[in-house]
Amino acid sequence: MEKLQAFIVLILVAIFLCACSSVSTTYTVEEDGINFVVDTINGTISDGEYTYQYSFSGSDSSYRVDITYPNNSSYWWQQQGASGYGGWSDAYDENRYVAGDVLRDVLEHEAPKESNTGSFLMAIILLVVGIFNISSPRTAWYLEYGWRYKNAEPSDFALIMNRISGGVLIVIAIILFIV
Predict the structure, then answer these.
(1) What is the pLDDT of residues 64-119, one digit of tens each?
(2) Dihedral in degrees, nearest 10, Cα atoms 99, 100, 101, 104
(3) Residue 25 carries which DSSP code?
């Protein structure tokens, strides 16, 4: 029976790890009638004619973007919530190349979302407790109720409920990881 429980836990962990999807390193965005290809690994945006270097730090609500043009001119933008400010170097020419505002809009399409470390931490805790309840329901029962009573033993129903609650906690943790 213990081997079966360990096997089920290993399968659940394997399913969880395999459910993680890989993120593409390039994507295409259409903006102002132009298809832009963004390469997140190399930090470049291409409009088919020119390639622009960029750096993006932060998330979708608070970020800084720096764009370097082929002639080494630059454009930058700092976003803080609903407002932002920016500037450019002397050699910046939005008539020769794509305007910095347009390139910034292209980058905003796939900007990293604001991370929610609280839900990630909660998911980890729920996953650990769920696995513990499934793999060792008697110990889980003792930690919750057994220490209060002298010479007490859990009922079969209590052990089954600990396993079921462990499974529910694992499902909730997986949902939190996905969302």
Answers:
(1) 999 999 999 999 999 888 888 999 998 888 888 998 888 888 888 776 555 566 77
(2) 130
(3) S
| DSSP tag of 97 | S
Name every residue whose Cβ is closer than 8 Å to that of residue 33 and which is 6 or more positions away in sequence: none
Which candidate, 84, 88, 93, places its Cα nearest to that of 76? 88
Cβ distance 40 to 26 under 8 Å?
Answer: yes
- DSSP code per residue over 41-89: TTTEEE-SS-EEEEEEEE-SSEEEEEEE-TTS-EEEEEEETTEEEEEE-
DSSP type of residue 103: H
Residue/partner pairs of 1-6 with CB below 8 Å, 24 or more apart: 5/134, 5/135, 6/135
- Residue 35 DSSP SS3: strand
Backbone φ and ψ of 34, nearest 5°: -115, 135
DSSP state of 99: -
> Please, which residues have CB within 8 angstroms of residue 22's CB and are 6 or more apart in sequence?
none
**pTM of the entire predicted model:** 0.52
